Amino acid sequence: MPTQPTATADDLLRLEHHVCFALQTASRAFGDLYRDALREHGITYPQYLVLLALTEHGELPVKRIGELLRLDSGTLSPLLKRLETAGLVQRTRSTQDERSVDVKLTGKGATLSTDAQRALRACAASVGLDPAELQVLQGMLQRLTDRLDAAVGAATGGAAGPGAPVAGN
Questions:
Q1: Secondary element (H or E) of residue 104
Q2: What is the pLDDT of residues 92-121, one digit of tens each?
Q3: Which helix (H) or strand (E) element contains residue 110?
Q4: How much is the pTM?
Q5: Which of 36, 96, 126, 166 is the most buried (most CB within 10 A)?
Q6: Helix or strand or coil: residue 105?
Q7: What is the spatial distance between Cα 33 and Cα 125, in angstroms, rounded to a whole number?
Q8: How large is the angle between the packed helices 45-57 and 73-85, nearest 10 degrees?
Q9: CB burial class (10 A; 0-12, 13-18, 19+) of residue 46?
């Protein structure tokens, strides 16, 4: 088996070798695949992620949804409003803290979440990676994210960290 040539630091600065560019293009390709799969359900990928978070965790405060999905309130609030208008989630003021808003799935939202998960399961199968490979890839990406969070936190004096919402992701 031929060995891969070792890249120099300068080689890694070429466009085709930028890890961030490879991640961006993979993300866009996933976005295209998921957009097509979710279109029939009438939701976007970020909306699906909210439904998935609520399916997995139950009722959550808006702030916690933002932390889980790394979305700031300027992005999350209109997204939740659209989901509520569609009858998929219900937002209520927290009884514990009136400054907080809790979000829960409606019956319609739970059904749609389950249907969308089936559609995305089919998408994952079409990628051609087996579950073990996907798990390894996800683990590597999580480690990379954790290290990037730490680097950003160090550069900003600790302002960012794991799970911190990041605008523009």
A1: strand 101-105
A2: 998 888 889 999 999 999 999 999 988 888
A3: helix 107-126
A4: 0.78
A5: 166
A6: strand
A7: 12
A8: 80
A9: middle
